[in-house]
Amino acid sequence: MRLALAHDYLTQRGGAERVVLEWCREYPDAPLYTSVYNPAGTYEEFAEVDIRCSALQRFPPARRDPRLALPVLSQVWSRARVDDTDVLLVSSSGWAHGMVVGPEIPKVVYCHNPPRWLYQSEIYGTTMVERAAMSVLKPYLLRWDRKAAASAQVYIANSQAVAGRIRQAYGIEAEVVFPPVTIDSMGRQTPVDGISPGYFLTVGRGRGYKNVSRIVEAVGAIPGADLVVIGSDGFAPGERSAKHVRSLGIVSDPELRWLYANARALVTVAFEDFGLTPLEANSFGTPVAALRAGGHLDSVVEGVSGCWIEQPTTAAVKDTLLHFPDFDRAKIQEHAGKFSASAFRRRIDTVLESVK
């Protein structure tokens, strides 16, 4: 089977990009279509992939932050086309599902979430440019997005929560295939200078729905507790310099492994589509304190892999962390093993075979 891959943009390091990397390993001969590619911003393994970018790649600001190209991204993807393939496999949370395929070529979409800026704008931290563009473009983008979704032969959701959002946004019943845990828990670890084991850890980009500020405030109210923050740039004034917070930005995979392995717990109060970071932490035997919402309902088992935070508030986070119990690390790792890359590949292969 000839296969082509597509992904919205390759400019960051997140769960969606890890999913695409897994596809690239499984289907090494498949070209990967994307709007823009920033090697410095995403995983270095993409350097080995046959990446085919749109004309937008010629504009450096878009490579740094594709949101700046929001007014034109729908047209970029509407003009992207592939004919020399048997199946197009798309990873999308807003754009790549609009790619055009030749006659009789099925399009399979793995949806991380319908675009937040259209359907969940109240919890999506938007820039001034995004808000201004959206006030004008939203009616058009809603029509475009629903037409793009309808062009797929098969829609796959990465969680039960996302399947519900797909049903509400598009009227499509999506099959659920959980994304894989791909971080190598047995790989090399590199300690981070100045950090001692036993800290609370949170991982994620600084977007409004990540609610990092609530975690910062809660840990600051617990005597002697420390917080390590990876990847977030969404701090309120003064939070970055708080004595109990160590903000690391983007870290290497060896450093990330060490940080997962030596944390007291991973803490997340994000409204996640699925949320791979709890399972990544679990793969090292580290428990999680997670918001009882969204994709966490699929990935967290209370009393086995972690415990719940009932509300995205400082008080609720503090209460959970103050009473955080001990867990059996072996059972935590066993739970994470159910979300293996091999299980994910088998499910995707089955879908692809069904549409040939």
Radius of gyration using CA atoms only: 20 Å
User: What's the end-to-end separation, in Å?
Assistant: 8 Å
Order of helices and strands: EHEEHHEEEEHHEHEEHEEHEHEHEHHH
Q: Please state the oligomeric state of the protein chains shown.
A: single chain
Number of domains: 2
Query: What is the CATH class name of the largest domain?
Result: Alpha Beta
Average of the residue pLDDT scores: 91
Q: What CATH architecture of the largest domain would you give? A: 3-Layer(aba) Sandwich
Please count the helical segments: 13
CATH topology of the largest domain: Rossmann fold
- Report the major sheet: 7 strands, parallel
Structural account:
The protein is of the alpha/beta class and 356 residues long. It folds into two domains: 3-180 and 340-355, Rossmann fold, CATH 3.40.50; 200-338, Glycogen Phosphorylase B (Rossmann fold, 3-Layer(aba) Sandwich), CATH 3.40.50.2000. 35% of the residues lie in helices and 16% in strands. It has 13 helices and 15 strands. A seven-stranded parallel beta sheet has the order 3-2-1-5-7-8-9. A six-stranded parallel beta sheet has the order 12-11-10-13-14-15. A two-stranded parallel ribbon has the order 4-6. The mean pLDDT is 91.
